[in-house]
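To: structure subgroup
Subject: Chain for Friday's discussion

All,

I'm putting the inputs and outputs inline so they're searchable in the archive.
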Amino acid sequence: MGYRAFIFTAALAACAHAAIIRVPGDQPTIQAGLDSASEGDTVLVASGTYTGAGNRNLDFRGRDLVLESEAGAEATVIDCERAGRGLSFHSGETAASVVNGFTIAAGMAREGGGVACLSSNPTFTDCTITNNSAESGGGVACHSSNPTLTDCTITNNSAESGGGVACLSSNPTLITCRIAANTVEMGGGGMGCIFSSPALTGCTITGNTTTYSHGGAIALFESLPRLTNCTINGNSATNGSGGSLWIFDSNPSLTNCILWGNEPDEISGAHHYPGDPRIRYCDVEGGWDDVGNINVDPLFVSIPGFSNLLRPGSPCIDAGDPSISDGVGDWHPRWPDWYPNGARSDMGAYGGPGNARWLP
């Protein structure tokens, strides 16, 4: 048997032995489903709101499992009832530990009110993490972890620091995620980072607030974040500075991003340790001196389900890094066929060519 044939046969055998455990059909609670699963199994959860012991503080116990809902996040809720967090990953879980299609709500913990990752790298897709609270990381807390979140919404969480996401010595990846309406007291309404290098692509960070400190959207302490095609809008540092970014000895890299309408200013840093931001091909209110940047109203338009779209005629269209072509997925509205939009990348989270989904 050739090498490729052997690998294919092994993969088929692995799939054949993977089981599906249904909740509540086979097991009464989500944790019971996880505990009965073996490596590679899927725990499939029926629609409903899950409360009580066995449906919070969920633990994969270091195994590569898939926890998936049958009907998606809107129909499948893990309600922690302020008695713990939704999920805890602390046993070296890998990217093959997957959570797909849940709302994780009403969690409360010291770190990570909704989800906590400690020395683990789980994967989250199509999840909503909302109305959770913690001292650090109201929605998600990452400590020495590199989780991946795709198409997730992190909203209406609260904390002392890192309202939506808190990162300590971590490098999470967020792809087409929405971080909105989170609040903190001390810093990083949307995200707070210490010694971390998160990567955000196609994300919107909007309406987050810090009440007594800096970084309405993002607060950075000795960190190296990378943001590409992100929109940062409507965030506020009520009694501080850096509505979009507050920087302490950090070197963030931003490409094709929009920083507009944040209060009291867009970017601010510690007086003696401002860091060295690399911000290029971005629309920054008030201006930022670097390659390809503009300081012009992006002309946002909203429709039900989507905000911060680029109106036809927006100066952010075809104004991104010319070495990057428009990349458009099926997850967001696209440009109508009749509207001229070139192959050059746009600024913000919603650029790109396509169909007439959101314009008459």
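Points worth raising on Friday:
The radius of gyration is 21 Å.
The chain has one domain: 3-284.

D.
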